[in-house]
Batch of 3 targets.
Target 1
Amino acid sequence: DQQVKQNSPSLSVQEGRISILNCDYTNSMFDYFLWYKKYPAEGPTFLISISSIKDKNEDGRFTVFLNKSAKHLSLHIVPSQPGDSAVYFCAAPNQAGTALIFGKGTTLSVSS
Amino acid sequence: DAGITQSPRYKITETGRQVTLMCHQTWSHSYMFWYRQDLGHGLRLIYYSAAADITDKGEVPDGYVVSRSKTENFPLTLESATRSQTSVYFCASSESVGGYGYTFGSGTRLTVV
């Protein structure tokens, strides 16, 4: 049973526009959520996080929104740049709090 | 060099062979993790370790063995490789279990033929 779900395998956006990547979760007890970004032939890198007590966290062009009632979070990238083209993973701590569990990822393509 | 290093970067092996993927980190992080990335599955946890000589299973541990005799090393062994173990394997380390400080290696692409 997948606890962190990214239902959109891919997203294509034009440069300068907003990219919105979505993530749904099933466990209302998650304390925080993270987004990781992955380029081809590289390991994932931490991008941004949000605590479950907040509904928004912003870092430059990246903003994560958390809707606890809907068990949904989203990553907004504004404005999108070609260098943002990558796979984005949503993650949350496993039930034991010992490791992260990841969604399947969304491949973002930003065209110039 | 400081960081987390995985070796080899690429490996082709035959079904039934034993193969070991290496992971070395220079920060003395307590926590280390092995994930595999597969199309349609994202990143799945294989094993993790909270400290030297402390390891535990993740989501997909079958067919894998780990050890951690030293804090800096966390090798992953496929005892008898199968085609279903063809994947990209990522090692990660962290100072805390929380996940904010996860640093991933560059990955090992393993092909089992």
Target 2
Amino acid sequence: RKEVEQDPGPFNVPEGATVAFNCTYSNSASQSFFWYRQDCRKEPKLLMSVYSSGNEDGRFTAQLNRASQYISLLIRDSKLSDSATYLCVVNIYSGGGADGLTFGKGTHLIIQP
Amino acid sequence: DTAVSQTPKYLVTQMGNDKSIKCEQNLGHDTMYWYKQDSKKFLKIMFSYNNKELIINETVPNRFSPKSPDKAHLNLHINSLELGDSAVYFCASSQGGREWETQYFGPGTRLLVL
């Protein structure tokens, strides 16, 4: 079983629509959670962290369900510039520092005009 | 100023050659990482360094050796390159390797082994 699983898509969504992505993670020791965004042929960049209480940043809302080991991202009023690959990421922090991130394969989103 | 930089951006080489990729960060971070993104776009941790000490070494062939001359640099040396090494290699850094820290990625080095 993969450590972080996501639906690879692509999700083709009209501009202005709301779209939701989900991911599941297998390691219950995972301690921190993120959504990163990766544009074509570019590096990943942090979109938002995902806290147990959930968090919102403008049109983006992220939620975490530790019991189900499930993370979600909701994008409202989608823009053409939201077209990208969204990477679900977990960090299994060992306390010794320098832990690498575990990435899902990403969900490809295409916003259509 | 670029926060995390890598050189070269593109690297085309023959099987069996030895090559190095350089990474520098000017963020004052204590921890640096190397990730590999394969042809299926799967991004996976290879190594990380905290204060010049290797903390993680995933199941990567020993042909790959990270070298950190100082806190701001983490280079990746690859011996006897194989076709399967073709991928995009990303360097990243974070403040101190704590669980909620943002990792900042370099632009990537696209390696093609012929």
Target 3
Amino acid sequence: DAGVTQSPTHLIKTRGQQVTLRCSPKSGHDTVSWYQQALGQGPQFIFQYYEEEERQRGNFPDRFSGHQFPNYSSELNVNALLLGDSALYLCASSLDRKETQYFGPGTRLLVL
Amino acid sequence: QKEVEQDPGPLSVPEGAIVSLNCTYSNSAFQYFMWYRQYSRKGPELLMYTYSSGNKEDGRFTAQVDKSSKYISLFIRDSQPSDSATYLCAMSPMEYGNKLVFGAGTILRVKS
């Protein structure tokens, strides 16, 4: 049973560029959440997608946007990258809101 | 003040010791509590989850929740070097699949 997968594993971008990160949820899961984890910190909630709609959003600017596809996979897009966007981006999936969330290995983004 | 406070450590113990990891929180609406383990450069792995107050045991791990004190704990018995990781507490006011609020994580080192 495949767990949550994310791509790419690592990414280097420069300030002002745009980036797209991808996530495939655990088999049978229909809800995808994205988190940002800065070095030495706990993950911070960005947003959650269910039935291809953004259902909840954390305190992140509009530069952070997402999408969920009919097969439940998801993308996180970040525009106009800032140095402070350097972090580990984690995707988590669950069965609707009732079940616990399982995390993928993350995408490590470095903005220079 | 952060919603969830967690001592970052590092906590260093000898192999076989009993480990106590703790979090305090300020939001009385939190009802769902989780502990995740995160190895270096990996995604968080779900260890334990509990609803409301009380104890829950799973093998060498015991999770405790004291809602009256807004305090949760994770105990690890017979600690092993393979338990060396960062332990993150997480909580949510509404179901496990909702937005999770994390502590900053405690680094645990178990010496052989």
